[in-house]
Design goal:
The chain has helices spanning 50-55, 81-95, 112-122, 145-156, 244-252, 269-280, 304-307, 317-329, 335-344; strands at 4-6, 20-27, 65-74, 102-106, 129-132, 166-170, 173-176, 181-182, 191-192, 200-203, 206-209, 232-236, 256-261, 284-289, 309-311. By secondary structure, it is an alpha/beta fold. The chain has two domains: 4-220, L-asparaginase, N-terminal domain (Rossmann fold, 3-Layer(aba) Sandwich), CATH 3.40.50.1170; 232-344, Rossmann fold. A nine-stranded mixed sheet has the order 1-11-10-7-6-5-4-2-3. It has a four-stranded parallel sheet with strand order 12-13-14-15, sandwiched between helices.
Length: 345
């Protein structure tokens, strides 16, 4: 176990100046508003600007020098590939600047885990990049966004967060972008890392990491964010499933398909045959699982080697899609090369 603790930032200069943290707002529930303070579901997401978000957390002035930017104002269920490109490219510019010591992104919870993993694989810097969000809109009684934002900035200002890849600070816990998933539709502790747990915690200005990220990320990846995204879709295996969805996707020209299998990535016979046919036509096929935790073992000679499938390991279908898009965009082809990438990241 590798434990590191920091309550102040190494980025602060010898003169005692506070670290300079860019806060990039993209919308989401944390920027949501409803007419009634008791309404936590019937609100409009992404309507509160970044300046108002910051005004709700006056304690930030004692943690960092904040450089706010409004990147977007979307409900994260509508996150688009073009916005991913814009966000990643902007973060890379900021990380390369001597005037910025870390970056915080406010985001909606619906697709936060996907955006976080995309950035984990494509941002090029060792400075902290931390996403945060909220389960209750800014207008709600006991809104959770302000404390989450304060904690995210505290983590981004921490020496211990350097070199850890992209992080998620939520409900006092610090998660790796690779591991974190949304596990509740309503609870303020909606984000967990179910397979191996959180990296650490943040509370009252104290940041502590209990372990470090092991798999390659950020500056150690071959992935470069770009405007061209290979078309990769997701299908699900379930009782009574047919091959119609897979056949339609292949006919539409997809480059890759991730299947959310049952159990250990097992696939209904009808879908499996359709995916095997797709693989023979050059479509990349990755087996993941619809189960909330665990990992998909590679079947080897029993199935994967014969059918040309790739195992997603512990990545859920949505993160597996992110990695497959990036791998295909980087020029990886064939099940062997793709499996090597999935084993690495």
């Amino acid at each position: 176990m590798n434990t590191s603790t920091s309550s102040t930032s190494a980025a602060a200069s010898a003169s005692g100046a506070l670290p300079r943290i860019a806060v990039l707002a993209t919308g989401g529930t944390i920027a949501g508003s409803a007419a009634d303070v008791t309404n936590t579901s019937g609100y409009q997401a992404g309507v509160v600007g970044v300046e108002r978000l910051l005004e709700a957390v006056p304690a930030l002035s004692g943690v960092a020098q904040i450089r706010p930017e409004q990147i977007a104002g979307v409900d994260s269920k509508d996150m688009a590939l073009a916005l991913w490109t814009t966000l990643a490219q902007r973060i890379n510019v900021l990380l390369a600047s001597d005037d910025i010591d870390g970056v915080v992104i406010t985001h909606g919870t619906d697709t936060l885990e996907e955006t976080a993993y995309l950035l984990h694989l494509t941002v090029k810097g060792t400075k902290p990049v931390v996403l945060t969000a909220a389960m209750r809109p800014a207008s709600a009684l006991s809104a959770d966004g302000p404390l989450n934002l304060l904690n995210a900035v505290t983590v981004a200002a921490s020496a211990a967060a350097h070199g850890q890849g992209v992080l998620v600070a939520f409900n006092n816990r610090i998660h790796s972008a690779r591991d974190v998933v949304k596990t509740s539709t309503y609870a303020v502790d909606a984000f967990q890392s179910p397979e191996i747990g959180a990296l650490g915690w943040v509370q009252d200005g104290r940041v502590e990491f209990q372990r470090k990220v092991v798999r390659a990320h950020t500056v150690a990846t071959e992935f470069v964010i770009g405007a061209n995204w290979p078309n990769v879709e997701i299908v699900t295996s379930y009782a009574g499933a047919s091959r119609l969805g897979v056949d339609a996707l292949v006919a539409a020209g997809v480059r890759g398909i991730v299947v959310a299998g049952t159990g250990n990535g097992s696939i209904h016979a009808s879908i499996q045959q359709a995916l095997a046919d797709a693989a023979t036509q050059g479509v990349a096929v990755v087996r993941s699982s619809r189960v909330g935790s665990g990992h998909v073992m590679r079947n080897g000679a029993a199935a994967d080697d014969v059918l040309g499938f790739v195992s997603a390991g512990s990545l859920n279908p949505y993160k597996a899609r992110v990695l497959l898009m990036l791998a295909l965009a980087a020029g990886a082809t064939g099940a062997v090369a793709l499996q090597t990438i999935f084993d690495k990241y």
